[in-house]
Every structure is written in C-alpha cells, then in structure tokens.
Amino acid sequence: xxxxxxxxxxxxxxxxxxxxxxxxxxxxxxxxxxxxxxxxxxxxxxxxxxxxxxxxxxxxxxxxxxxxxxxxxxxxxxxxxxxxxxxxxxxxxxxxxxxxxxxxxxxxxxxxxxxxxxxxxxxxxxxxxxxxxxxxxxxxxxxxxxxxxxxxxxxxxxxxxxxxxxxxxxxxxxxxxxxxxxxxxxxxxxxxxxxxxxxxxxxxxxxxxxxxxxxxxxxxxxxxxxxxxxxxxxxxxxxxxxxxxxxxxxxxxxxxxxxxxxxxxxxxxxxxxxxxxxxxxxxxxxxxxxxxxxxxxxxxxxxxxxxxxxxxxxxxxxxxxxxxxxxxxxxxxxxxxxxxxxxxxxxxxxxxxxxxxxxxxxxxxxxxxxxxxxxxxxxxxxxxxxxxxxxxxxxxxxxxxxxxxxxxxxxxxxxxxxxxxxxxxxxxxxxxxxxxxxxxxxxxxxxxxxxxxxxxxxxxxxxxxxxxxxxxxxxxxxxxxxxxxxxxxxxxxxxxxxxxxxxxxxxxxxxxxxxxxxxxxxxxxxxxxxxxxxxxxxxxxxxxxxxxxxxxxxxxxxxxxxxxxxxxxxxxxxxxxxxxxxxxxxxxxxxxxxxxxxxxxxxxxxxxxxxxxxxxxxxxxxxxxxxxxxxxxxxxxxxxxxxxxxxxxxxxxxxxxxxxxxxxxxxxxxxxxxxxxxxxxxxxxxxxxxxxxxxxxxxxxxxxxxxxxxxx
Length: 712
Fold this sequence. Notes:
It contains four helices and 55 strands. It is mainly β.
C-alpha cells in the first residue's frame, strides 16, 4: 500500500480520484492552471497559487472514511500547509530540498480512519515558500464529493427531471414551477416528516440533485430497496442544482429509492447511468415503452374485444391517449372481455384511471386470475397509466384474458399493451404453422408492393414481418395481414384475407398477374404443400347469393369462431373488394363487395368497373393443397435420429406429429447402399505350391445390403 511520499499515478484499489478541475473543489483566492497541459500531472492539469496569503484556500465536502491529497514535491513548495477536517487542523509539507529531484502525482497528505459520514475539508496555503499546488484528491471508492453545483450530468450519467411521471410523491409536498434556477424550472419540496419521494431505476448508480438553503432538513433519509443508507443534510447557504447524494457501484439491476425529508427537502433532478432509465410503477404514466419492451396499440389486429358494450374512441386535437385511440366499456356497462396471446416473459396494460373507474377488474394469464384496479382519487381522468404488470413468466406463448369490473362508470379501458421487445403478439385464434390451420383459425402473412397499381409480393407466411397493413389499405402497402381459414374443401384449405391488402389496383392488373382465377405462389418450403392466390366469387347481381363472398363473409360463423358479417373480423368498411365475377351490368363490369356505403358485409356494387380506384381493393384468397407427406426418423441406440450431413439425435421418445413434419427425413435414399471401391491389403504367406501365393480375409458384413426395416 502506498504512503505519503510515494508517487501514485492512479488511485489504488478501494480509492476513488477526483481531478483538480472537478466542480466539487471550490477555490478561493488567486489560482492558476498552467498551460499547455502537462502529462506529468493527473489529467494533464494542476492548480497553483503563488501567493502566501491567508485568503488562498480550497474547500470541499465528501462522504467517506479516508482522504489523500495528490500533488508534487518540489523545492519551492510550502512546508506549512494547513488542512482542516471537520474543524481539526493539521499541517503538511510538499517541500523537497534544493538539488533533489521533484516528484509529481505524489501523496503529500493522507488521513485514514475517519468515521463513515460526511466530512468538510479546507486546505489553506502555507507561507514559508513560494508555491502551493493541488493535482487531485483520493477518497473511498464508495464515497463521493457533495454540496457543489452540478449544472449538467457528468460523462457516464444522464439527468431526469423531478417532473418525470416515474417520480412519485406522497404526503405534504409542494412544487415550484416558476424559478428558472431549477433544472427545467421545476423542483419538488417535501414540507415535513409526512412527505416522501419514491422512484425506481435500472442501472448501477444514482445522484440526487437538490437545492441547499438555510431552512432545509439536516437529516434526510435515503432507502434503497427498503434498506436505509447514509442520511445527509441539505442545510446550508442557498445553492441551486446541488449534488446532495450519490450511490454508485450497485450490481446492474432495478432498484427502488425512497427519500424521507424529516423536514423541508428539495429535489431538483435525478442523475443515473447514461444507459439507465426510471422504471414505471403501477399507477404512473408511461407514454412510451421502456427499454426491453414493445408496445401494441389497442387497435392492433391481434387484440380481440368480446361483448356488446365496447366503445372505440379516436381523439381529435391534442391527444392524451397512446396513438390517439382506446377501447372502453360503455358507461356503467360490463360483461366485456379482451383476449390475446403473446410470446415472451412479461406483460403490461396501459389504460386510463380516475375516480369513476372500476376497482375489481380481472386479468387471467394461462388460467391464473388476479384482480386489479384503475380507480384513483382524481376527478380528472389520467391517461396512459400503467395499471397492471406481470413479469418473470416462463419464455413461451401465454394466453391473456381481461374482464371488466362490476362497479364504477368505466369498467374496463384498454389503451395499449406492452410485452417483451423481442416478443410477439398473437390473435387468440392465430397459428404460425399451416399444418395447425382449421376453420376459424388464422395465419399471418406479409405483402409488399412498392409501385401503385402493381401486384406485389407475398412472403413470411406464419411470421411477424412488420406492422399490419392499415384496414383502409394503401396503394403501396408494406405490412402484414391475416389469412383466415374459412373451409377445408376436399383436402384444400381455403383462406381469405381479413382486409384489402392493396387499393388503387385495377381488376385487370390483378388478372394479368393470374391472381383473379388462381396462380401458384410459393409461401412454404414444404414440397408436399402448394399455395395459390386468387379472388373470391361475388355474385352476378344483388340477388345472387350463391357465391363465396356471401358464403364466408356475410353468413359464416366459421364454426362459432366469429360473428357472421362482423366488420371487426373482415374490415370491409375499409373499402369494396374485387371479386372474380363478371356482373349482370355488362361484360366489362366486375362485381365489388363490401364497403360501408354499400350496406356493409352484404354490400353489392353492380357498377364496379375494372379500372383502378382507391375505393376498391385487392382481398386475396389462398388455397393450400397438402399432398401426402412422408417423414421418417431412424430409431437407433434408444433414440430417434435424423440425417443432416450426419446423424443427430432428435428425441429419446417417439417424436410428435409436428416434429415429424418440421424435422423428419423426407428422402430415405440416404439409407441406400452406394457402390464402394476398396483396396484389400494382402500379406505374404510363404510358398504354398508353385509360384508366390498371397492370402487375405474380406469382412463382407461391412458391405452387405440392409434387408429389412422396422417402420413405426
């Protein structure tokens, strides 16, 4: 361990260094910083005063148990410098005899064994030589300088204002929003022992930025995860943006911090890790998802609203809702449900709160039910509030059901849903594998057309590729939609898009692509499965009900999965859809179906021409033909194996049907014996007759054909 007189260019283990330029060091009198910088000093700089008078001194305050003064030894340095710690004065020397080499970045003073707490230090320059210098100070690694103005966060930190929705207050609290000396012209003031401030953050460190004054408390308590830390004082001469408290070196994680004033205490801001963030708590506003989360609006196609008492509102003007929309139960009405599935480990509900909201709503996740409340003592409704949170679920697909409460005017409100940033939201009837499709189920698909009135490209069947195409569609769409299975006809799975995936595209354009009557479009890698795209039939006139549009869109409940003709399922209000039918109005006319102005789902447009129009769009039908599929595994040594440039174990037990489909061997020719040439080594065996004779043994078992297989 280093001691006084030793050079120490970096702080030792257990110590922390502050350079002479740090704002926590307050210099009084005449001081200079030599220029240019000198690499011999810590940080390239040193503070110098050449006047041996009483008004040249430096002061600072720190939390810790030990202190080192880092400077240089030289022949013109004072030997009678005075250092006062908490009112106790000592002297120290930085003098080195003439002719002796100087020593930079050296320990010129050290104090150990102080009580853990806050200490005030003053260093006054000596009088018996020419110069006094200060290069740096070292204190405890877990300590810090405090009580100085910190106008902006230092490198590695970021500042969050006291007005953040994630800063919670309770008890006797006042706010100042008029004094521009505060950060963002805002500060919170605890008025007495009943008041407290609470926040939660993700990171390793935090600082409390406050405002000192003579009426502030001398005993402010800080609790981290309910464990009391060192108390501090904010009492002193008026000082804005004062660095009052610091805690660093925490393991990376989430921490809850509570501040109790025990008198008047002012909080101006909070500094945390530059990559950290304040974590929302139940009841707080959360206008955007936190890092590690992804937000889905209440209007997302995967969220299903069940019940007859739902109201969907779109805000106009200045929006207070996420994406300007929310769903809520009609005033005083209940019996509503929300259903969806998600892949991930965590879930949050964002909704409105207020005094007239229900306090007995329920959320069910994978069959386990909890109650939650959106009722708060506020006459003004509060928007975009975190009202429910569930974390640490096992990674996988989870089923969620929200149910309305039984009291209050507003018994269930949904503004948005947050899940894992790498998660995925699923419709309750959504599958990701074609093999799992049945009537009423749906599968996601992507469609992109970069040029108007041009048929685009289908891709990503079963995948989440991008956001959904708007239900009003687009002339140049680039997004996802659902194919909903409506029938299994003689081994052919028939699926219809849940919306127009493109508008402003003419019937002729669709026909030229082959997608009016049907054309093969490769959407799966399975060679036993083919997919084709076409249009629905639509009827030659309004009386003709023998067509696919009426059969599936208007009249079918899809085995009880949907309400027949439901716009929430088929989105026909977004515009009419082209069909393949030539209508009775003339040979050049094609039937368009749907659109709000044409009597909804049963709407019939006999005068739809073949030209492009934004009011008429492309709603594809996909036919999936599944051919006989043969998949195999090899049972060997107690395991089921597959071949993929080598044998690998799939399962110790008979694999499931989906595993056979996804991983099974489709070509058993890998088991065929191949013609093999080999060289047989023969050894000399002596003279067995006339001439030289050799002999060899051939193991034919290595080359014999497999004659039987046990098939399961």
